[in-house]
Amino acid sequence: MKATGIVRRIDDLGRVVIPKEIRRTQRIRMGDPLEIFTSPEGEVIFKKYSPIGELSSFAGEYAEVLFKIANLPIVVTDRDHIVAVGGLPKKDFIDKRVSNTLEQIMESRRIYTNGSENDAVVTLCDGCERTVGAVAPIINQGDVIGSVVFVAPSANVHPNETDVKLISVAAAFLAKQMEE
């Protein structure tokens, strides 16, 4: 755990303000759910709650099936990190933070494809060279909770209509699983 040197007091309603700089660097937005953990040493730890992370095992199996049937390398993300992988080395991608551009694509709530040569190359995650071929946001109860991403083998590989439909179905299916 890393000390920040920031001290905050709890108000009379039991609230504490998380400083703006920490919210920005940790990508915590107004309304984001936080999980609260305690340790035997008296620590209280706030962690961003990832609803799609609860389905990471199931999402991983779904991604593997998509890869085996359609030969599409797939990753499933929550709003911040990669939570499941199909057709790519898991150790290279699981828990990596998604790129800022991919996060913006999710927030647009629309399906994205890298269809034109004028498009800027969208990388999958911070510190990796893999490019995004297509993205379908996972939307549950009106909130974007993650995405299903077709990972293109190179920037000049564009998804076809079937690829886009497959990831759209995967995103809708995972959203439906969150309802149950």
Q: CA-to-CA gap between the ends?
A: 35 Å
Overall pLDDT, averaged?
A: 87
Q: How does the helix and strand content classify structurally? A: alpha+beta
Helix content: 25-40%
How big is the Rg?
Answer: 18 Å
| Alpha plus pi helix count | 5
| SSE pattern | HEEHEEHHEEEH
- Report low-confidence residues grouped into runs of 5 or more: none
User: How many E-type strands?
Assistant: 7
Shape: elongated
Strand order of the largest sheet: 4-3-7-6-5
Q: How much of the polypeptide forms β-strand, as a percent range?
A: 15-25%
Report the biggest beta sheet as strand number plus sense, adding barrel if it closes: 5 strands, antiparallel
Concise description?
With 180 residues, the chain is α+β, with helices and mostly antiparallel strands. It contains five helices and seven strands. The two termini are 35 Å apart.
Task: Explain what you see.
This protein has 180 residues and is of the alpha+beta class. 29% of the residues lie in helices and 23% in strands. The protein has five helices and seven strands; from the N terminus they run H-E-E-H-E-E-H-H-E-E-E-H. It has helices at 20-25, 56-70, 90-93, 100-107, 161-179, and strands at 34-38, 44-48, 74-78, 82-86, 112-113, 131-140, 143-152. It has a five-stranded antiparallel beta sheet with strand order 4-3-7-6-5, sandwiched between helices. Strand 1 (34-38) and strand 2 form a beta hairpin. It is elongated. The chain starts with 19 loop residues before the first helix and ends with a helix. The mean pLDDT is 87.
